[in-house]
Amino acid sequence: MRGDLGHSTPAQAGVARLIRPLLGVGISLVFVYLAIRNLSWPQIRDALAAVDLRYAPVALACLALGYAARITRWWIMLLPTRSTLLWRQAAAPYLISIAANNVLPFRMGDIMRLFAFRGQVGLEASRVAGTLLVERLLDLFALLAIFVLVLPFVPTSESAERIASLARWAAACGGLAIIALILVAVLERLVVRRLEAHPLTQAIPLAPKVLATVTSLSDTLRAIGRPSRILSLCLLSAAAWLCEGGVFVVAARAAAVPLDVPGAFFSLAVATLSTLLPSSPGYVGTFHFFAMQAALTFGAMPAAAAAFAIVVHFALWAPTTLAGALAVLARGARRPRDWSIGLRPMKTDTLLPARFDDA
Predict the structure, then answer these.
(1) CA atoms of 131 and 76, how far apart (whole Å)
(2) Transmembrane residues, as ranges (predicted)?
């Protein structure tokens, strides 16, 4: 009998594979409609035409400094497991993964980054996964810290209350993630190593590999968790988000919306936290809606707020996508034997089900 319980046909698997991206596109379209439902295209066009492009180099400089801090942070997290890794060797996979996330569904860039160092001893996918988990937590905590710091400067309104509710949900997700990481470390010490030596475990298919992955992940988290290294990572996270906040400040000036520095960072926090919601690649719609709502909260006119949301999204999306594309071209121009690391071709059908969200 076809389609037995617990098994799926190729057609069912194909439908399931399409559901999530279609759902993301649908959610994006809903938020696009909510953002512009009371605006006409001529209003948005005129607001975009009034954007002062002289601010573009400043925004690009802020973005570049922020991503340099992010790449450095990831490089420091990788060093405990591969001390000979060069900064530039971490930079290319990082930029490529960001560009892939901007244009591909299922956060494919994160999955590509897991396997960026395939074949390199000490940089197995399970070890790289530990660095990605720490990276996401650091980003979440930085955003929540920004939100708490700027909240006293936010005018009281119904939309601000809704945004605060979103931040509380994000904080709850962050707390659960911390608990999960602690459980991984504790279980690895108390349970996993005993199970690895048990004869029954060796008889269960895939069990040794799963336990080895948990052990590798736990070892990576403990290596990253040294106090001096954690301090460096926190400082780099702060630098990265301060620079990205600078992009919002510059975009507000360029679009002539009345966002002061606290308002711009409030927009940064809520727009980035909104990316926790499922959406299309690049967070189209969800990012724009919440960035626009933040500008409206501070008294911006709707058309100017929409222009601000479009400008800041483009300022974040376009340069990182271009940088990732250039990284791909630069690596492709070299002979394969000269690559110190490589993003080897991977079968899409083995990657699509694997996804974890970020802040």
Answers:
(1) 9
(2) 18-36, 57-79, 85-104, 137-154, 166-187, 230-255, 261-277, 289-310
